[in-house]
Write a structure and sequence with these properties.
2 domains; 6-stranded antiparallel beta sheet; Immunoglobulin-like; mainly beta; 288 residues; Jelly Rolls; 10-stranded antiparallel beta sheet
Length: 288
């Protein structure tokens, strides 16, 4: 079969270089530097119990990593009424074009609807929320999952959530992001709220086109058996994802060339992610 050589040029399907700002896989939620957990729910548990916990692998396992390596929260955040339980990230510097990605899910077949918000507080001074309806300085609402608290409205398998900052921060700015588990008529005695997990959090800074050489990364598909990679900088990690977000291949590397076995994959479009010391590059790859 004729070899196919494709230059990963930005003029084709688009080539994007990312510098990683923050990544968290929640291996140990008791060791999250700079995070703030704050339960502002009606009738919360006793002081000192935030309601956020290490994932319970008997409910479902993590998106990736060890079975319990995810952040969990559930109906026990409140005895009744409105749940407003916050997991607030440390200060990071971001701007328009940067992305905030994570995976989340609830229990399959859940009849108790859940809801999650992602919010942002701009600036180095953070006003923490005070009460179940208050959002403090987290006035920028970036995402709501299952806004109307519908049964089946929250993902029941791990699903990627991808937020890109647009028309908010025209220059690099310090901010705090926050997850808000926000469920009305929830809690132990409520008819809403069950259990959700959050995993594989990545905040990326997108570098401009002038920051990436067109021949920074080349690939060719050889005999439909191998994806051959050639980079200007030694690779640290190579990953291949399905369009759905499912990770299919993960290979650690210290070389600037790699041959990735792909004979088990079907024809289609995949997402190639290559991490180097320079940053992270993602690219659509077509396997014929």
């Amino acid at each position: 079969m004729k070899k196919r050589f494709i230059l990963l040029a930005m003029t084709l399907l688009g080539c994007t270089m990312h510098a990683q700002i923050l990544t968290e896989n929640f291996d140990n939620i008791n060791s999250l530097p700079g995070w703030i957990f704050r339960n502002e729910s009606d009738l919360p548990p006793p002081t000192g119990q935030s309601g956020w916990f290490q994932g319970n692998d008997t409910v479902f396992i993590a998106h990736e990593g060890s079975p319990d390596s995810y952040l969990g929260v559930n109906f026990s955040s409140s005895a009744c009424c409105t749940i407003s339980n916050w997991a607030i990230l440390p200060l990071v510097t971001v701007q328009d074009g940067d992305t905030f990605r994570f995976y989340t899910r609830t229990i399959a077949g859940s009849i108790f609807p859940d809801r999650l918000e992602v919010r942002m507080s701009i600036g180095t001074t953070t006003d923490l929320p005070d009460g179940s309806e208050d959002v403090g300085s987290f006035t920028e609402l970036l995402l709501t999952i299952n806004e109307n608290l519908e049964q089946g409205g929250y993902p029941e398998v791990w699903e990627l959530q991808d937020i890109q900052l647009n028309s908010i921060l025209s220059e690099p700015t310090q901010v705090r992001f926050a997850f808000r588990y926000f469920v009305t008529n929830g809690g132990v005695d409520g008819s809403n709220s069950n259990y959700i997990g959050i995993d594989s959090l990545i905040i990326d800074s997108e570098l401009g086109a002038n920051d990436v050489s067109e021949d920074f990364l080349r690939y060719r598909i050889e005999g439909n058996e191998h994806l051959l990679l050639d980079t200007q900088e030694p690779m640290e990690l190579v990953e291949l994802y399905a369009i759905s977000g499912q990770k299919l291949i993960s290979v650690e590397s210290e070389e600037s060339t790699e041959a990735i076995a792909i004979e088990s994959l079907h024809s289609g479009i995949y997402i190639l992610v290559v991490k180097t010391q320079v940053g992270i590059m993602s690219k659509k790859v077509i396997i014929p």
